[in-house]
């Protein structure tokens, strides 16, 4: 059985509280394409601003896949805030309203 010191246990507990319960990714762990879009640091619970790069605009879907229902469109060069998680893969969730958009039709806004 593993034995942990009180100091180590306290440090881990305080780290989890300070990071909002997220556990930092292991160094060298592969990022999803959506995480790379937002240029995220491992372990960050991200929201970033992106621009739509396809002239037809990007379809908003009810879930993270092409098989989900279309619920709207974001026009070309329009910016929008999205939330990215490790599990979102190639899809990003709109941060201020329901819906998901495909990462390939986006680019990060700003630096």
Structure overview:
With 111 residues, this protein is α+β, with helices and mostly antiparallel strands. It has one domain (29-108): Roll (SH3 type barrels), CATH 2.30.30.40. 16% of the residues lie in helices and 27% in strands. The chain has helices at residues 6-18, 33-37; strands spanning 47-52, 58-61, 70-74, 79-83, 91-94, 100-102, 106-108. It has a five-stranded antiparallel sheet with strand order 6-5-4-1-7. Strand 5 and strand 6 form a beta hairpin. The longest helix is centred in the N-terminal third of the chain and has 13 residues, at 6-18. It is elongated and about 55 Å long.
**Count of individual domains:** 1
Count of extended strands: 7
Amount of helix: 10-25%
The class by helix and strand makeup works out as alpha+beta
So, the CATH homologous superfamily?
SH3 Domains
Radius of gyration, Cα only, in angstroms? Answer: 17 Å
Morphology:
elongated
CATH class assignment: Mainly Beta
The CATH architecture designation is Roll
**Mean pLDDT across all residues, rounded?**
75
Summarize the topology.
Layout: H1 6-18, H2 33-37, E1 47-52, E2 58-61, E3 70-74, E4 79-83, E5 91-94, E6 100-102, E7 106-108
Antiparallel strand pairs: 1-4, 1-7, 2-3, 4-5, 5-6
């Amino acid at each position: 059985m593993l034995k942990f010191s009180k100091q180590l246990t306290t440090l881990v507990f305080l780290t989890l509280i300070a990071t909002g319960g997220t556990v930092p990714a292991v160094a060298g762990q592969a990022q999803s394409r959506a995480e790379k879009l937002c240029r995220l640091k491992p372990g960050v619970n991200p929201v970033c601003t992106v621009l739509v790069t396809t002239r037809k605009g990007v379809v908003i879907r009810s879930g993270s896949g092409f098989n989900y229902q279309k619920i709207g469109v974001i026009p070309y060069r329009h910016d929008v805030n999205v939330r990215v998680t490790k599990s979102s893969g190639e899809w990003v969730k709109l941060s201020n309203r329901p819906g998901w958009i495909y990462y390939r039709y986006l680019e990060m806004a700003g630096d």
